[in-house]
Amino acid sequence: MGFFKRRRVRKFAEKAVEQQNTMFVFGSNIFTEAFIDQLIQIGAQTRVALISDKKLNWIEEVKDEVNVLYEEQNEEYAKRHLYETIGFHNAEKVIILHEDPLIIQNIMSFISNEELKVILLAQFAPPFVQYLAGQKQGQIIIVDNLNQIVNELYQQMSLPLVKPPVISIPVPESRISKPIDDLQIPKVRVLNILREDSKDKIIPLDQPTQENDRILLYLEDPEESLKHLVDFLSQYQS
Amino acid sequence: MNNQLEPKKEDKGKKNDKKKKKGQKRTFGDNMRQLKFNLTTIRANSKVVFRLVLREIKYFVPLQDLFLLFFWIFLFIVFGLVIVIWGIPLALSIIPNDPFKAYDLHINLIKWDGIIFNDTTLRYGAGIIGTVTIIVRLMIKSPISKYRDKVNTRKDVTYVFGTSRPAEQFLFEMIFQFGYEERVSLIADNDLLWIRKLRAFIDIYVVENQLEFEKENLYDIIGFENASRIMILTESIELNQNILTNIRRIRPDVDIILLSQYAPAFVFSELVQDQHLMIIEDLDATVQGLVLSLSMDFNFPPTVEIDVPRTYIGSTGVAMTSDLVRQKVLLVRRGDELLSPEEKLKLGDRVIIYFFSDYFMKMTNRVVTELPLLPKKSKTKKEKKKDKKKGKEEIEINALDEELVIPTIEEPVVKDTQLYDSTTHDEVD
User: Fold this and answer.
1) Measuring CA to CA, which of A34, B215, B389, B407 is 20 to 30 A from A15?
2) The pTM is what?
3) Is the pLDDT of residue A235 over 90?
């Protein structure tokens, strides 16, 4: 890394510390653009730092609001110096929206902090990362956008079959080894406990839960149910 | 007193436990229901297999003609050889003065063998075989013609363009999870290994050169006459644009589905007013998922909502779970109402199933798709006879009315009240 480049990366890292950036987003594609736009709309722009592989007009437009670093050389993503210089001091989440599996794997291999949550898109997640996500549940989150896309395709097919709004979430830590039959979330129906050990098992809610168990939920009203669910989970986290 | 009662309670508890255990055991009725469902599954499967076999026969009919041609050519050659090797020498041996000279016949046969199997005839033979091979090769169809002929034996096909991840997942789910292989066909832009897995199930055409998508020939040859909808799912915006414009040229009425992340910019223009163009807002869905993932780790388990299979109407979701292999009924939906699986299932109910195995899900879904139950019950023979009789009577009455068109004086209309009065009056009398 040359002197000027190192200075640029350091400046970015210092700004990230100053602004207390907690989310580091890698990428520059259409998903990155839409995601950054959404975060700006929510008012979370000060929490975001963007590391882009391309100089694009939309990034120039958001540069005043979001902390941006351009790293156009793909080789740099395969070297430790970049990550060491950035530091990821206040980082809580790293969101990788790259399409190139090599860059994704490089970023993943150098972000080894266990406290960091890594978020990827299923559409671009390489098989090795998918395997890791299975091993490190909760730390590596793969957003299943493919499932949503395919659901939309099904709706266009006019089949006598529907993919229902059923999701699974991990059991809140405070409820591990306790039954969860008393869980009540507005607009959400708690169905069963899903235990994905050697054999997939669906267990009734009155049984005590275990670590790595997930709760099966039916969302009665997809938008409102999700809001209630987020509120419910934030209560448990707090 | 209490001490004396306690053991009784325990006994009661034990009895309840036993009852529970007994409840878990499958009764003869349960087994019969399961057998009935399995038979229904076989029936549904055989229906599909029969349809597929018919389709294959339909496709192979032109090949049958080719086979007949070869068969006749083969017979002709054999016939010719028989005449040349045995027929002519025999005739020659018979024609001379002494027809009983077996020695001459033998000499003639050797002579003819030498004439037929010498270098020149062998060369000619090789030449003929080569020519026949060339003709055969010319007669064999090109891959695109084969694809067109095969796909045209189906009705209402959804054509999928592309080899992107959404296309892959969609096709795999359609084929292996839900058994709708007859409804889809793939036109791939790359020859990938996962496509070869699907070759046995659906009609696939792999374009050798992606430039073909720009040319009109591809679309003209395939025709897309049986297309119910077309999903353009390639990862290249340029390719999508070429496919979209060419399809619209030959089928202006067909539904075209595009993903917003790969949709060409012109489709968002106000100038484009195409009612049959559907753009799936996958970008919004993805961003929503990303934003949601910031606060929670969620995923979509393998679940599906289908109609209640015919065997389980009047039964419960719990019974269905105990009968089905590696599937569990999570919920029952009756209209907008969500019910527990313990509820008795009715016609028109939908069940939400979690499935551990794609294969068994495919089997269950096949029963629902192939053997759907109509909302109205079919009339019994007696009812049909009654209806027929009624129909006949009505026709007769109508015919009489038509015949008796006699100009009559208008009678005063008898009101209901008057009728009532008269009857009451009669009763009083």
Assistant:
1) A34
2) 0.74
3) no
